[in-house]
Amino acid sequence: MRTMRLPAFSVRAGLGSSAATWVLLQQVLMRGLVAVKFLAIGRILGPEAIGSVSVALLAVAIAEALSDTGLSQAVIQGQAAPTRDELGAVWTTLATRGLVIGAALVAIAPLMNSQFHLGGALLLLQLAALLPLLRGVASPAYYVVQRERRFQHVALVEISAAFVDCCCGLVLALAGAGAYSVLIGMIVGESLKTALTWITMNPRPPIRLRWSGIGHYVAFSRWIWAGSVVNLILNQFDKVVVGKLLGPAQLGAYQMSSRLAQMLLADAAIAMSQYLFPTFAARHRADPHAAARLFRRYIGVIALGLVVVVIVLRLAAQPLFALILGPAWLPAVPLFKIFVINMAIGALIAVLVSYLRAVGDAKATTQASVIQVLVLLACVPPATHYWGVTGIAWGMTVGLSSAAAWMMYRAARAL
Q1: Which of 242, 297, 334, 340 has the fewest Cβ atoms within 10 Å of its own Cβ atom?
Q2: What does each C-alpha distance from 409 to 413, 414, 415 come to in angstroms?
Q3: What is the mean pLDDT of residues 379-398?
């Protein structure tokens, strides 16, 4: 009788510092902590407070995207590891960027306060200026750790910061700090992450002003900047319109509906795409026809599953909101019913992007993003005029559908 043996290296390999297990664990725990924080604080504070915080975070996201240097990705992608002097120049650039963004946010806070109808939220907007500054002064050794695939180290730092952020935010919300609880929690978590990058990560760059020596990163990083601008339009355009035209209460309902739908649908697909991309690529290198068959199988099963989930979530939307967020959020139920459709389309797009990039047609995904931007610019203004916040949500549906249709066409040509 033969004894069945399990590979002795499996557990050790699965928990090695470069194992994909750590990436998966980081994604699951961080998304779970963010979900707990926002859903619990959303239930405590209500739509208007969440809307005010969303405007502050929206300002940070826009400023960071428009000034994205792409240096972090360039360090990770570069052929040779950066020297300490090069890391010093990277740190100088990123710290200066964080300082400039922070100062700009403080300066434009009064304008944003009036334009987005926030009332007495001026200090909230100015407090958000600390976030880019804290991120800017973090040690660029963090990118070296990522470059060297030390995923365990990255996961422990990120999870620790997310845990502190979540706990701090919840404690402050329960103590009556209102909308400030979200931002203060993020600032404390970001401070911990920045400190850990200096304390636990090597090589540490010299802390002195140095601007030269990183010109070879610029050619790569400029494309990162261009991608950041396109993604900024896709991810923040609708929120700017809602916040500007309809005020913080409607923005809070819009943001929470979108976030809840994303947690239930899109996040799983995005995580799955991290597996699908290398899988499709490996199959395509070995046998393009086998990769095509695998893609058809995945896209069919995922599409069928998404249809079922969308139907269930739309039917259960009202009791789900009442249970998780409370009665104050029930007016957001119609928005949630639209967003589950949007996130289902987004989940399909994640699979399509994985396949198209795996077969070498990355251009199709960029073209789809441009198509989506053009459709949004054309349909969102009239939709907002006639149907308000619901029209914006349906406009996003049209944009996502257009992008998905183009990628499906390009994928079909590659089959």
Answers
A1: 297
A2: 6, 9, 10
A3: 90
CA distance 73 to 203: 17
Instruction: State how far the Cα of 248 lies from the Cα of 133, in Å rounded to an integer.
Output: 25
Tens of pLDDT along 71-93?
777 777 667 788 888 888 889 98
Q: DSSP for 365-388? A: HHHHHHHHHHHHHHHHHHHHHHHH
| Confidence at residue 6, expressed as pLDDT on a 0 to 100 scale | 40
To the question of pTM greater than 0.85 for the whole model, the response is no
Read off φ and ψ for residue 3, nearest 5 degrees: -90, 130
Contact residues for 361 (Cβ-Cβ < 8 A; gap 6+):
410, 414
Residue where the block lists tokens 């994928």: 411
- The pLDDT assigned to 262 comes to 85
pLDDT in tens, 266-309: 777 777 776 677 778 778 888 888 889 999 998 999 999 999 99
Q: Quick one: residue 70, left, alpha or beta (phi over 0 = left, psi -120 to 50 = alpha)?
A: left
Cα dihedral 233, 234, 235, 236 in deg (nearest 10): 40
CB 395 within 8 A of CB 383: yes
- Across 53-78, average pLDDT: 77
Helix then strand then coil, % of the chain, to nearest 5: 85, 0, 15
CA 361 to chain centre: 23
Whether cis (ω within 30° of 0) applies to the bond prior to 205 is no
Rounded to whole angstroms, the Cα distance separating 301 from 272 reads 13
Which among 330, 347, 323, 361 is positioned nearest to 261, based on CA atoms?
347
Q: Which amino acid is at 152?
A: Q
Instruction: Report the C-alpha gap between 370 and 348 in whole angstroms.
Output: 18
Residues 179, 52 contacting (CB under 8 angstroms): yes
User: How many CA atoms are closer than 13 Å to the CA of 135, on its beta-carbon side?
Assistant: 17
Predicted confidence (pLDDT) per residue in 175-225, tens digit: 988 889 999 999 999 999 999 999 999 888 888 887 777 766 666 566 566
Spatial separation of the C-alpha atoms in residues 286 and 270, rounded to whole Å: 25
Q: Are 123 and 89 in contact (CB under 8 A)?
A: no
